Amino acid sequence: MSTRHALSLSLGWLGRSFSGTGVLIGLFLLIPILIIFPMSLTAAFFLTWPPDLFSTRWFEAFFESPAWTEALWRSIRIAVPVSLAATVLGTAAALGLAYARRWRRLLQTMFIAPLILPVITYALGIYDVADRFDLVGSSWPLMIGQTMLAMPLVFIVVSAGLAVRDQSLPRAAASLGASWPHVLWRIELPLLRGSIVAGALLAFAYSFDEIVVAFFLSTPGGGTLPVQILGATRESAEPIVAAASMLVIGVAAMVAGATVLARTLLARRSA
User: Fold this and answer.
1) Per-domain residue ranges for the chain?
2) What radius of gyration do the chain's Cα atoms show?
3) CATH no. of 57-270
């Protein structure tokens, strides 16, 4: 057996091993969804496995309950401005870092630091500041806190888009006398549309699903949907919790699908 043939067999076996491992990891991540979804459709009054009879009564109970629907809309009202603010800040940070000549490593570390630091310590710090200004229970500290946590996601996505863009286009425009606002609005941002949209959707999904900061900055009865789910699990074991969890998962799935669709459409339009 030649060395080249042996190497080809080894690489093929290695590729199949990685593919099989990826499939197993994907199935493992899907296990909670495969369990929660049937439990949300049970006709029983308590969470049981396997579920008794399939029914949509708990989804109907969710949308008929003012406490649950208010928590759902509160999550949406907070996630929308958070995603907009995080998109603006993350995009500006990525563009600024792309043109920075000094302290690039330090700035990059600062921009992604909220992803590295423990969220619980970050939430405690925001709570202390909000408490000093008597803002606990207000939406502003929560939106600011979640914006700082979602901004690194946008920064990473837009930075990846900047890395693969055609760098000759903004340089050519600048060499022809175009001002930097013109280069930014007419060249840079159109080239980054797909990355910006993907970052905004990721920021929305993160804010909608975030629970640590929301838990610390929410008052009783005024929390977001994840906080409401956490409180309900402490009080009872009704399947309405599973129905609410499936709504959170459904929003995350729709955002993921919208991200892929948006990037695909924008890539085809730019081609």
Assistant:
1) 1-40, 57-270
2) 23
3) 1.10.3720.10
